[in-house]
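WARN retry 2 of 3 for item q-0093 after timeout on previous attempt; input resubmitted unchanged.
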Amino acid sequence: MSAPATLEFDSVTKRYPGAATPVIDDLTFDVPAGEICVLVGPSGCGKTTAMRMVNRMVDITAGDIRIGGTSVLERSPAQLRREIGYVIQQVGLFPHQTVAENVAAVPRLLGWDRSRIRTRVAELLELVGLDPALGSRYPAQLSGGQRQRVGVARALAVDPPLMLMDEPFGAIDPINRERLQNEFLRLQGRLRKTVVFVTHDIDEAIKMGDRIAVMQTGGRLAQYATPAELLVDPADAFVEDFVGADRALKRLALLRVRDVDLWRAPLVRAGDSSASARARAAESEVPYPLLVDDDGRPLGWLSERDLARPIVTPPADSAPDPIIDADDVLRDALAELLQAGTQYAPVVDPRGAVLGVLSVEIVSDLLAAGSTAQEAPADRVRDDR
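OK item q-0093 returned
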């Protein structure tokens, strides 16, 4: 696997002949190797132009862009583009070529032998969650989400140190869009590519980015920061307005359930005395005992009616809903609680054993306290769901 490359924008300007103002104006920021940098801003702010200057699809008027310390101006555009992965909104697959042929496009240009190409295509289709048998199909025979996965596989074909992604999930329906976002973040957790990701959606930027470059009209950089810094301390009124009035709720996307203090669950097992179950609930913040199996996995909440007998017995149809994974994003966990119309949900570890209880009150107190939502560790969204 090739090492990810650093990316540097050094006073980059783009001005078209006859234009009164530049499209990109003195743009300067650095992207550390292995991180996702999201360019976000209103329509016409130059974010796509800035990205396309990286692979010289748009010429630089002034300044420089360096990949791994080497100026893009020192490479021919054709050579540069073969070494940079590129994913666009409409995917851009060749309709007359099969999936396998599309993924193999750049390796063929670089003269790879057929055996190496076949191996790489099968490896990549599996990597992006597609059955290698789909390699013989044509793009028109795939769903939108499948075509987008093929586009990502094609961009990864020669293991590039840098990837450019221009609103890659913008044309996908909301459900598949979230699924593709999560799958790409899991993929990024394994590959650690340097990625420049363009979007107009601030929520997507916060979810996907390690760093966010907020751009404004005229191609000027309004703020360059981590998602947590952007939400807690917007640089000016423009950034504050662009991020939105619900900054506090957006901060929930930066935390996982495991990052908050859960309530102690009043755990009971079949055969325990009902009096003991009531006592455990009385000592807990949660007013209901939680029935678990011998491995600590939740079986259901117990009501007063369930505790009417001297000994706890499993009630029928008592499975708790929802059950929340400790690795879930806190914003998604809150949505599950609200959708289920409940105040409490057991939180489980990878084995399914109960770690504690998440409540609406915990999240409410977190927001009311004006939490700074400390940015989670580097894998905060890389192994997402």
